[in-house]
Amino acid sequence: MEIKYINENAMACVFEETISEQVNQQVLALKRALERQQVEGIEEIITSYHTLVIYFKDSITHDGIAELINRLDISDRAERTAKVYTIPVCYDYGLDLAELAEYCGLTPQEVIERHTSRQYLIYMLGFMPGFPFLGGLDASIAKSRKETPRKEIPAGSVGIANEQTGMYPLASPGGWNIIGRTPVTLFDADRTPAVFYEAGDYIQFKAVSKEEYTAIEQDSEYQIEVKEAEV
Hints:
This protein has 5 helices and 14 strands. By secondary structure, it is of the alpha+beta class. The chain folds into 2 domains: 2-71, Gyrase A, domain 2 (2-Layer Sandwich), CATH 3.30.1360.40; 83-228, Cyclophilin.
C-alpha cells in the first residue's frame, strides 16, 4: 500500500492497481479499521477498486493520519458478514440483449442464465448516486461499451460493460450494453438510507416476467430478498 497526499484536506491509500476481489477486500478492511478508530476530524472515507480516499478537517494532518494507518493491522482475515441482495430483473427490457447474445455466440436465454447464475461483489458506488460497479461477470457474456452512448437510459436498467455488470439507479446517458431492467427503486433521496446496498455487499439477479415486473413496480410494500453471507 502507498499513501499519497491529494491536497491539504485529502489523502489516498493506493493498493495494487488491479480489479481484484482480494485487493478490494483489503481496501474495505482498511476502511472498517479506520472507522473503528472514530477519529475526530475525518469527514468522509470513500473506497474504489483499489484505492481508499480520506477527507479530513484542518484539525488533523496528513502525517497524523498516515501514522495511524501504519499502526493499523488490516491483515486479520476474521470473517465478516456481508449482505446479498436478490434483485428482480425483466430481461424483456434488454435493449441490447439480442445484439450482445449474437456477439457472444449465445442465445438471449443463455445470456440470461449466465447473468443470473452468480453473486456479484459491489466493488464501489460511483458515476451517479447508487450506481454499483459489480465484479465477477462470466467472461463469456462480456462486451465492451457501446461506441455511441445513448442519450438516455431508463432508471433501473441493468447493463454490461467489459467484464462488469451494473445498474442505473436514475435515468441517464450511458454506453453500457443494456440487457434488462429492475422495477426496484435503487436510489430514493427521501429514503433512509437513500441506497440500501454498499461496497462490500453482493448482488444476485433473478429473472422475472413483464407481469411480475409490473406487479413489483406497483407494490409499495415489496420487500427485496436479503440474506447474509460470511466472507
